[in-house]
């Protein structure tokens, strides 16, 4: 995978199926990544959560992909200590050491 083959964009509800696959793989590849909520969450529920994030002015969710395969996710969420936010970035091992994390 070449770094310039990767596209970074805001996630939307059409990403629900690919995002479920990505989250499952990430949870198997690293112990620093956790999924909040129930595993096996229905695709419709995931799409609804994505839609809520997309409509929120306080949250941001981005994905990185090569073709139709997602290889990374980044999220920005508010904390209770305004104006501080939490940034989370998770990248599949196949895309490690290629500078992807620096592009967010």
Radius of gyration from the alpha-carbon trace, in angstroms: 14 Å
Contiguous low-pLDDT stretches (5 residues minimum) are none
Largest sheet: 4 strands, antiparallel
Total helices: the number is: 2
The portion of residues forming beta strands comes to 25-35%
Q: What spatial order of strands do you see in the largest sheet?
A: 1-2-3-4
Number-wise, the strands total 4
How far the N terminus sits from the C terminus, by CA atoms, comes to 17 Å
Order of helices and strands: EHHEEE
Structural class: alpha+beta
Overall mean pLDDT score?
A: 80
Helix content: 25-40%
- The rough form would be described as globular
Indicate the topology.
Layout: E1 7-10, H1 16-29, H2 43-55, E2 60-66, E3 69-78, E4 85-91
Antiparallel strand pairs: 1-2, 2-3, 3-4
Describe this structure in words.
By secondary structure, the protein is of the alpha+beta class. It contains two helices and four strands. The longest helix is centred in the N-terminal third of the chain and has 14 residues. The chain is globular. The mean pLDDT is 80.
